[in-house]
Amino acid sequence: MSDRNLHDRAQRHPEKAHRADNAQPKKPDWIRVKAPTSEGYRKTRDIMRDNRLVTVCEEAGCPNVGECWSQGHATMMIMGEICTRGCTFCNIATGRPQALDAFEPGRVAHAVEKLGLKHVVITSVDRDDLADGGAEHFAQTIRAVRHRAPETTIEILTPDFLKCAPEVLEAVVAARPDVFNHNLETVPGLYPEVRPGARYFHSLRLLQRVKELDPTMFTKSGIMVGLGEERQQVIQVMDDMRAAGVDFLTIGQYLQPTPKHHAVRRFVTPDEFKGYEQAAWGKGFLMVSATPLTRSSYHAGDDFARMRAARLARVAAEQPGRTA
């Protein structure tokens, strides 16, 4: 993000500008990425601009944007670019959002069709200002994509709907996304400083409730490491996810967006990530992605295909003659 953009964000959101600076340690070689320059990157960027769409790839400063956009993959962020929460790890602007754009679901669907996506990831900011947290807008977007691109599989990454009636979740599940993702982000002991507006067990229950509403729907969740957590706490989060029926786990290295954000406590080594991956497979997840550069939507389409194949294989092994 440019110095000008950082200045503008600080002007709009003084609560972040006044945080104490946290020194940003030098990144190790294993998480360095090249600046995006490909023609595919520029084409994807132009389609996003032409359809006036926001992407979490840019807003959150994802390190994989060059690789993903060069392949025509982008995670679309609906309901605006201003979040009502102030998580200390996140680079998305905090403040008062604008009203929902009723035409946005159609523009998302048009972009999905134009990009020819086989799999799309749709996420959003938190919208605590809305009575349903944006649940119906998610449902409308899913239906619009289904209409314009019926062969495209749809993955959603939702907020926690913390301040909403429990039944708002039903509208999203009823729209039948292929994957319902909601990230726990970190271990419960770090929630007060990392996710002060969220509640760990509420998020866990949200994922469990999706499975209760539709046992066939794939569920997914992820955490960051390097925030100050201990290994045993990460293992406990894995157990909590499996108890809630989560199918797909992602674990990636936290990267501090600016000196005003939560500090990187350490860079977790590739060998440690491999250890987390092996532990997660042992706990029965259908799909696991645990690398320094793993993000929720990184290689999401390929991973979805692997997860679906893993379920079919597991069902075949446990109940011969039955399909998932």
UniProtKB/TrEMBL annotation:
A single GO BP: protein lipoylation
GO cellular component: cytoplasm
Keywords noted in UniProt: 4Fe-4S, Cytoplasm, Iron, Iron-sulfur, Metal-binding, S-adenosyl-L-methionine, Transferase
Binding positions ([4Fe-4S] cluster 2): C83, C87, C90
Residues engaged in binding [4Fe-4S] cluster 1: C57, C62, C68, S297
InterPro entries in alphabetical order: Aldolase_TIM (IPR013785), Elp3/MiaA/NifB-like_rSAM (IPR006638), LIAS_N (IPR031691), Lipoyl_synth (IPR003698), rSAM (IPR007197), rSAM_sf (IPR058240)
Domain of life of the source: Bacteria
Subcellular location: Cytoplasm
Major subcellular site: cytoplasm
Record Pfam families: LIAS_N (PF16881), Radical_SAM (PF04055)
Domain Radical SAM core: 69-286
PROSITE patterns recorded: RADICAL_SAM
Reaction it catalyzes: [[Fe-S] cluster scaffold protein carrying a second [4Fe-4S](2+) cluster] + N(6)-octanoyl-L-lysyl-[protein] + 2 oxidized [2Fe-2S]-[ferredoxin] + 2 S-adenosyl-L-methionine + 4 H(+) = [[Fe-S] cluster scaffold protein] + N(6)-[(R)-dihydrolipoyl]-L-lysyl-[protein] + 4 Fe(3+) + 2 hydrogen sulfide + 2 5'-deoxyadenosine + 2 L-methionine + 2 reduced [2Fe-2S]-[ferredoxin]
EC number: 2.8.1.8
Listed pathway(s): Protein modification; protein lipoylation via endogenous pathway; protein N(6)-(lipoyl)lysine from octanoyl-[acyl-carrier-protein]: step 2/2
Entry keyword annotation includes Iron: yes
Region (Disordered): 1-29
Family membership noted in the UniProt record: Belongs to the radical SAM superfamily. Lipoyl synthase family.
PANTHER family: LIPOYL SYNTHASE, LIPOYL SYNTHASE, MITOCHONDRIAL
HAMAP family registered for this protein in UniProt: Lipoyl_synth
Record protein name field: Lipoyl synthase
Gene this chain is encoded by: lipA
